[in-house]
Predict the 3D structure of the following.
Amino acid sequence: MKVLEPYKNYLMKSPCHPFTAEIEAEESDIIAIGMTNGQASDMTASSKTAIFVRANEGYRVGTTYVQDLEMSPEAVIKEALANGIIQDPLHLNKGMKIDVEQKMEHSPVEALSQVASDVYQSIKCLSKELTYISVVTTETLKQMAIVNNQGLDLSSSIRRIEVSMSLTIEKPVHRSFQFEKTVNDLQKLSIEDLMGPINEWLELPTRSSELLAHDLPAVLDASVMCNILLTAWQMFSGADYQKRQTPYVNQLNQCVASEVVTLKDLPSSGNCGYNKVFDCEGTLTKDLVIIDQGILKQLMHNQSSARQMDTLSTGHAGRDTNLISDQTEVKIIPSHFVLEAGNATKKDLLDRLEEGIYIYESYDMFHSLNTASGDFAIPCKGIVYKNHEPQGTVSGLTISGNFVDLLKTIEKVANDSSSLSVVMSKSFQVEAPSVYVSNLHVTGGE
């Protein structure tokens, strides 16, 4: 990236600086266009470039964050050093050069607008009861680069296209639906795939029912599992493991889930648009199997947590102000956190519900699960099943229990899929299928 050239030159002119320094740059260029109830919206565009510096002199480590690209490298690094506090010195990745940065141009606005229009028209044809339809197509071009005075020089580029949909039906019963899909290439977007989850939602029964039992078999929809994973991934952070702030302490290489459960983080495969070559510390990423058929195999690490546990970083260093307000703090963050799909269809799972409940919608993704204990209490809606037949919808429900126990009671995993990204920052995404659990505690009901 051009913004890092002055920093590279500054570090190269005097490689024997009395300090070590790491400079990372991130550039995001975003355009969005959509259609709401048949009316095309104006295109919105935004661009942001940020430079993050970590530097240490002796045992004082300091950080800074700047968007003023006119500041001299010397001034920015001095600012970082001036913010230094006493702690372990930085351990910088050394002597590696990778340049997979491509000169990317945005897709034609007409093409992005056409996607929104085509999706809108396809949704409109599904039901005359729809009173509100909003479709937004967003394309993000992101460049990332990092250099240090240990010879590291990395750069990469990604393209991410997201189609987000919001639907409402007012009568006979008010209900709404949100759904998103991301790809890294406009040609990989399938409108037919988008219609499947919407059709399922439209076919849900609208008549009311009542909940007669509180502990019963259940099917958790893929979207509900995504809602849970959007918080639960933190239980597999090496930093939280070392601090004993996860229920999985001392459980490495132990059976912690049903054998049908496999959890992965996939920063270097797939076409979801959340792939990356290296993390914000310059560690190369790789696909990581966290739980393999029920066995806890690995944790996610940045350099700090890896040193504390005498292992290697897995390339999961990142920054996200959704997790902490400090722009410069390096955290452990996934890229594309996935509960692996199974071979059964969702219908297979629902057919198993002789008497049970299908939880198809949930809320409060960030406050309903305690990652230190695993305990959760999640507000939701469900459909009561009796004699293998849906009886009606129940709202005002809460499902509660412990995430560790939930994974142990999963008996069947579907081959469907839903995905969910972090609101605002869009720094990572989770993906999950629907699951059948043998026992779920459910309370409430209106």
User: Anything to note?
Assistant: The radius of gyration is 24 Å. The CA atoms of residues 237 and 300 lie 5 Å apart. The chain has a mean pLDDT of 93. The longest strand covers residues 130-148.
